[in-house]
Amino acid sequence: MRGCDAVIIGAGPAGLRAGLRLTSISSSLSVSLIDRYVPWERPIPCAEGVGRLGFEEAIEVDPAWIRLVVSRANFYAPNGACVSYTDANKGFIIDRARMQSDLAEKLRKRGVEITLGVKVVRVSRVDKEGRRAVSFDKGEPLSARVVIDASGPVALLGRGESICWKPYDLEPAYFAVADGVDAADDAVHIYVGGKVAPGGYAWVFPRGGGAANIGVVVGRNQIKGVNIRELLGDFLTKNYPKAKIRTYFAGCIPCGYRRGNIALPGLIKCGDAANATNPISRAGITEALMSGGLAGSAAFDMLSAENGKRTKKICADYEKAWLEKRGARHLKLAKAKDSLAGVPDEDYNMAAQTLSALSSDKVSMAKIFGLSLSRFPRIVWAMRHLM
Ligand SMILES: Cc1cc2nc3c(=O)[nH]c(=O)nc-3n(C[C@H](O)[C@H](O)[C@H](O)COP(=O)(O)OP(=O)(O)OC[C@H]3O[C@@H](n4cnc5c(N)ncnc54)[C@H](O)[C@@H]3O)c2cc1C
Description:
The chain is an alpha/beta fold. It is built from 9 helices and 16 strands.
């Protein structure tokens, strides 16, 4: 069987970042990157919104990846009342296809073998030589000393081993890219409410020139009896009746987080494959880039490990690093999420009415919390996990 040092499964943000980190630490490793598709030649199921600070921390940003800079988030309560939150740090709507194809090109130039259009069907357990076999839907398997699984939420690789092989709290999302959308271009727009998106939210993320990505994500516990396509249709008819739909897409978001193994000897999970997404905002691009970076470092350490004891320590250190970076916060958010989903619509309506009376530059998270504390105890009770 043909062998290499490392196989990376998935040319999404997590896999590409892992490859960049690994090859920046050592240029002499043989690394193979596999994806079942050419991701940048397909519509990427994503609204492409990121906070500037985290994104810039996670990757060296090329200005060509930025579609728009946004400075506000408009939150709409179930009754339509809008609270506008201005973020001095701003955010970006990015062009993921461009970013991913640029990063893949960078890896290719560093000597990474990139194979697109091939699906990984299995990763074996580690053998006596400390290697794992990666099997494909076509062609010969490949053996590697380390496999980085950055395959997103649904490939279920590592099944049967004591690792997070499946997504926690997988939520369905349905969205459209549309033109003729009458929404401010310098803001992202978030709508909540039992009728709009039970247990989740609807979003409108502008793309410039009147185009926007408009979608709905619904809570896993609230999806029963809900037709998500109808939900999006109703939302569009009510709020953006002039929108001209280019295409519809479906996707799913792993929105839960628990403590548990995300690495074993010879197998490291990152990005959505490691449930790295923020459970409440459902943002996962920056998180995938960050966890991919950590996975790349852990892979290099594993390749240099002198014995099994050291390898186990590297797995534990990788998990700890993720916990410190985002995991501990995600644990709290995952707990708060269910409680927030249980807050009645009228509480959000009242909270929004109170906050919308403030000018947008005065709406801070502290203000939201302070006002809620005195007037809307059910919201505060739901947010107790964040404290
Ligand atoms: C509708 C929707 C909207 C979203 N909007 C946002 C947003 O605005 N902002 C944000 O930050 N996050 C958003 N997210 C989340 C974000 O898209 C993910 O968290 C992010 O893509 C995770 O990156 P990743 O590299 O871990 O996985 P992915 O981007 O899913 O990449 C995984 C790659 O692995 C490949 N692959 C899968 N299985 C196999 C296999 N068996 N063999 C070989 N290759 C395989 C796939 O083709 C894919 O290219 C959204 C998600 C959805 C579904």
